[in-house]
Amino acid sequence: MAQEPLFEPWNDPSEKPLIQFKNVTKRFGDFIAIDDLTQDIYEKEFFALLGPSGCGKTTMMRMLGGFETPTSGTISIAGQDMNNVPPNKRAVNMMFQSYALFPHLSIYENIAFGLRRTDMAKDAIDARVNEMLKLTRLEKFAQRKPHQISGGQRQRVALARSLAKAPKLLLLDEPLGALDKKLRQDTQFELMDIQEKTGTTFVIVTHDQEEAMTVASRVAVMDEGRIIQVATPDAIYEAPNSTYVADFIGDVNLIKGTAELRVSSKPAEQTTPETLEAPADPFVDDTPRPQPNKLGEWLHDKVLSPIIGERDEPIKRLPPPSAAELTATPEVTSDIPEGGIALNWSDQHPAIIVSNGDEAQDGKALTFAIRPEKLNIAKDKPDAANALQGTVIDIAYLGNVSTYHVELKGGQMIKAQMANARRLAKRDITWEDTVWVSFTDTAGVLLER
Amino acid sequence: MRRFALIAVPYLWLLALFLVPFLIVMKISLSDIALAIPPYTPKLDLTGGWDAVTSFFKALDFENFEFLTSDDLYWKAYLSSFKIALISTVLALLIGYPIAYSMARAAPEWRPTLLMLVILPFWTSFLIRVYAWMGILSNEGLLNQFLLWTGLISEPLTILNTNTAVYIGIVYTYLPFMILPIYSTLEKMDDSLLEAAEDLGCSRTSAFWLITVPLSKTGIIAGCFLVFIPTLGEFVIPSLLGGSQTLMIGKVLWEEFFNNRDWPVASAVAIILLLILIIPIILFQRNEQKQREMEG
Questions:
Q1: Less packed terminus of chain B by CB within 10 Å, N or C?
Q2: Chain A contacts of B202, Cβ < 8 Å?
Q3: CATH code of residue B211
Q4: What is the complex's ipTM, to 2 decimals?
């Protein structure tokens, strides 16, 4: 993938979308399944519709397949208005959630079913079916009935059957829901591979965010009949546009607070070491430099002093931190770029510094969202833009990572995820420990809704 | 031991209520008519010892079966019964399938009600329902009165005591046995199969013939046998609704027993009927078993 040119037709204004939803609304009685939805999907895209059950994603797909007609608005495929086109007249095929394989027909006949409905010649059908069997590695099972093969194989038959007619658009309705995790992951890559080989546009409906992120070129997160955000998987994950999206995709910590412009804040002066405050002589370099430890001093005195001279005495030390300083803003020792937003969220904790925050958000009530794996957890106060003190309440050991549930003063719960690089026995943080949760000034995002 | 007892129960049931009566009827069919009570000889007399038993078996012969082939009444009755059963089965299928189909397609909350309506006639005695048809179909019956009132006919139609009345009675009586198995296969069918067929280019009609009908095949076969088998030996409907020209083997059987008091010939007729019925029953079960093996 890396050496290929970037596939981003949605950013190219000259590109014509394959599918266009224009102000589409679908009502079932009083229930609004799709609410005034407008969306473009481009050719060769792998477009994922993601959302909880009842969010309208399946309705959207069924409208593409022709099984539902919009109450208002138009759906066009390749520029043609599809509102009055029945399913059997569309160049669209669907892979059903239950696979919907015909139990009385062999695998071969299942795949041939769609082709037999066309005026295709018999040997052409045979060639095409064999091609599909090869693509999905099902040659051995051609003469079996659907109940004689495994779930993963059935899923591949369903895929082969829906691809046999070479549709412009393939719809996949929770295609991997019935498979166990290991098989699902393998199949996801297989799906991507097949999509790339055939160049078909895929629209997939799923409630599994991991699946959507893995396979899709773009993900649309839906809720209550609306699309909340459409973006590439990494943009959805790293830059969600709302707390709904942030919360739906993966794990997230949400902290509510009030934004304050950071330009006017002067924590830097108040916490700078005294030795820097007013340099008396510009030629005297009295900036703090690394200080030797006991062994270093001994070595200097006994071995190096004849060569490079006496040690500087006395050593310039930072003043001991005052009690107030311990709870003050933690950018004491960090290089944080100017600007951005500080989020005041608790009177027991320093404001959260978000240097990538939009300055126009000053004064607004915002939610700070940060992924657990972007947090660091340590027993000693770390050198970081943001550090919050709390107590470990719970540790979830997941094998490769552990999730620490930390309760900050004031009750806010924070989840921090750490890779288990060391063996479990060497883990030094345990229940009831007082720890520092720290993160950089660009690790999270500020969300308005 | 407990498992043995569990298996023994149905076998004992079959032994006592099927095999023993069958052997008794079989024995009577091999006997000769006699003016006695019961009206046949020989009778097994175990007090007579070994000689009595051997002479008893020597007295049995296939005379009655030979008699059945000599008189064309019997094979004509078998053939006519077969024809009536076959036509009734086809009629029941043609009427029952659309009913079962619309029941299976009805909203789920309506299905139990519809199912109950199909079973409801069983709450009334079968005989009473057949008598009710006499009231409906007779010359002065409800149907003729209604048709005369609408002006469609000027003279009452003769329906009662014809084969038409027999067909009406049989189809009416056995229709639920056709509907229920078809309904149960159609109800189990996944709607997404039809959507998939449409998605792959089928029209609604071709999807019905290519998907729905093949998938309800087991229900259709079961329903046909459930109608055909009892209809073949049906006695009550042809004797109450049919006329003198309605020839059915059940009626012949009854007449041999009660009018002629010829128990041996009547038993021979019954044995032949049973043998005729056993063939389709075995075929049916083979088919079912094959289906199960394929699905299992």
A1: N
A2: 88, 117
A3: 1.10.3720.10
A4: 0.77
